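Memo to structure team: turn this sequence into structure tokens by end of day. - J.P.
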Amino acid sequence: MITVVIPKQKNKIPAEEICRILEKFGGACLITKNSVQDFFAVSPSFLLFLTDTVCAVPEKNTVLLLADTDTDIKISDSCRFTCVITEGMPKEAYNGKTVTVGMGRQNDIGISSTESGHMHIAVQNAVRTLTGKEILPCEFSVLGSTQAPYSAVLYAFTLLLLTEKADTEALTVRL
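Reply from structure team:
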């Protein structure tokens, strides 16, 4: 199981969209301050926490999903995330465990183009999966129309890539 921490209650809608995408890849469960939402959670592959404070996290397979506006989240110094996915923060912020996402060329993973029914997402710099496998620069076709915002698709794709659920041979992901 992959634990994903998403700061701030204002991120509830994107978190729900990410869960809807991840439900096809082993299920997801979203836990917020006042509710638990199952997205095909028969023992989900992804456990997402929407929270303002992080006191402790599991030692393995824990991802912090940090948007550029989430810089004031309270994270205990004892928390050691396996990876941090961030948009708009410096890559050096988390000791080389950071994967940057966004629309710009400087990001590790970005949307290179969109067409009706699918988009192309480029791995622009080599990244490591949660198990340490290196993914070299390449471009994936993400198929299937989704009403989710591009940022939610990008975050969900990055989680799938880091957990090795994206097909790195065919370079295609069907949402």
